[in-house]
Amino acid sequence: MSTITLTTWSLEMTSPADLVPAAPAGPEISIARAEVPSPEFSRFLYASVGGDIHWTDRLALTRAQWVEQLGRPGVETWVAYDRGTPAGYVELDPQDDGVVEIMYFGLLPDFRGRRIGGHLLSVGIARAWSLAERWPELEPTRRVWVHTCSQDGPTAMSNYQRRGFKIFKTETESKVDTPTPGPWPGA
């Protein structure tokens, strides 16, 4: 079995003024919050976006575990649509002390390279900064962070940095090189 060196970068914003929004992607693109938590829909987004870039940590979760994760106060899923078809998503995960993690962000493969990602990320970051307005039991956001790795899409890091994120931690590790799971077995 061969191994690879995996680099993971953690990036942060400490002020809403740090956000450098991307231009809107076009009139055919809309972004809406999935206000009713749906494990099936979230798993579809997760597997479809991450299937070719080694997202595997949630694939083994039970439906009950998905319900628990999505039902926590402040967890939000924002979905980009291209003329009604899901194109990508951003999942916000509130943490202690006014910290919000962009837990997952990405586009389905057919929608990459069309300037949707910068717009979706901009909206997701803005919604992270305003999370306590929709969830009054949460502290106001004072920090937004995200992590990306060397197995993510080739434009992920540059998109985060263009939006105003700054690297605060870099980690490397050796990892067994495994094939991507695809959006479904055999894909």
TrEMBL record:
It comes from Streptomyces virginiae. Pfam families: Acetyltransf_1. This is GNAT family N-acetyltransferase. CDD domains: NAT_SF. InterPro entries: Acyl_CoA_acyltransferase, GNAT_dom. Residues 29-187 form the N-acetyltransferase domain.
